[in-house]
Amino acid sequence: MSVTLLSPDDLQPHTPYHHVAVATGSRHIHVSGQIARLGDGTPVAPGDLTGQVAQVLRNTGRALAGVDASFHDVVRLTFYVTGWTPEQIGPFMAGIESVAEELDLPRPLPPASLIGVAHLFEPDVLVELEATAVAA
Fold first, then answer.
1. Angstrom distance (rounded) from CA 77 to CA 10
2. Is 84 helix (H, G, I), strand (E, B) or coil?
3. What would the DSSP string read from start to end of 58-98?
4. In Å, how far from its chain's centre is CA 103?
5. With CB atoms 3.0 to 4.6 Å apart as the test, which of 55, 76, 105, 129 could cross-link to 36 if both were Cys?
6. What is the pTM of this model?
7. What pairs with residue 6 in β-bridges?
8. What is the pLDDT of residues 16-54, one digit of tens each?
């Protein structure tokens, strides 16, 4: 395996992600921001953060599979969420949990950031996900 995920003892405990990823592969994979759209552009889960989080993870998984990689090769996830408030953490995490088994997501996740933004490029887009992976 080309990625080792870990959380040193002196960092914040009980996070749903690891604090550090160490990668030794030779292919650097950068997945552009994925949104909740089907392959034909049809919006998925309008107004539903949980549903959109699930779909962006599915789309990211498809992008990774397209280059013979998986979430186990991911060293960084960056989520952008419109109008973020701390009360949204429940629906956000529910979206992750709803596809965790389907996508074989590592648990805890690789290092991740959740960044609140005023808006994304279209009004119905609630979340966008970028991923960085390293594979052999």
1. 22
2. coil
3. HHHHHHHHTTT--GGGEEEEEEEEET--GGGHHHHHHHHHH
4. 11
5. 55
6. 0.93
7. 20
8. 988 998 888 789 999 999 999 999 999 999 999 999 999
